[in-house]
Amino acid sequence: MNLIIDIGNSAAKVAAFEGEQLVEVIHTSNETLADLPTFCAKYPFERGLWATVVDLPDETIRLLESLPFPMRPFTHAMRLPIVIGYETPHTLGVDRLAAVVGAQYERPRRDLLVVDAGSCVTYEFLDANGCYHGGNISPGLEMRLKAMNVFTSRLPLVSVEGELLEIGKTTETALRAGAFWGLQREIEGYIQSLKHKYPQLLVFLTGGSQFSFDTKIKNIIFADKFLVLKGLNRILQYNNE
Q: Catalytic site residue 224?
């Protein structure tokens, strides 16, 4: 079995895979991985891979290194089942790479746009030949709401949770609607633009934020909140083949 750990900006996802089959996922602290020892005791892991977008404390790294099976950090030196067309691959976020690999494994030989709506929103394009061209990064939903509070004198900090209107009727609902619908229109714009150039485009939506789309593009969107985990597992499998 494989142990896969995806350490993000707000939490860590720890997963057990039997081959390519996802068995279980838990969420734990992205600093301490507090629930990792208990999780490891449940399964006969043979190998593992971990990826992080944050700097880990020394104690957490020692915890990973102390596991009783080979545990590798995901680095840009590892072999990948895709071709990298990015000009600075050493600066490319490991979560971005893993999401693309996960999408390519799910839908091989297709033009793919991967949208990861987390702390930031990332857009990644992979063509049908398996070449990753690159992508864009923009502020996520909470970041947009926080920015409007931080960079103005009087606008309040509004929670993502709460009433969501098409047109805001109060300052709170106006801020929330502006951030949410603005981000959704942004995502739709990327999809429509790429679909014009690549008519057979498929879209994978992952991350913590959920969006609804009109019927014209809904049929090409696949929602998969575990896409990064699946990509990391695929990379581990590929490097052991």
A: no
Set 95, 111, 116, 224: catalytic member? 95
Reported pTM: 0.91
In angstroms, the CA 1 to CA 21 distance is: 10
Q: List every span in the chain annotated with CATH 3.30.420.40.
A: 1-73, 75-241
Q: What is the dihedral of CA 137, 142, 148, 149, to 10 degrees?
A: -140
Q: Which residues contact 55 (CB under 8 A, 6 or more apart)?
A: none
Mind listing the pLDDT tens digit for each residue in 141-181?
999 999 999 999 999 999 999 999 999 999 999 999 999 99
The DSSP element (H or E) to which 63 belongs, if any, is helix 58-65
Query: What is the CATH T-level fold of the domain 1-73, as seen in this structure?
Result: Nucleotidyltransferase; domain 5 (3.30.420)
- Determine how many CB atoms are found less than 10 A away from the CB of residue 57: 12
| Domain at 75-241: CATH code | 3.30.420.40
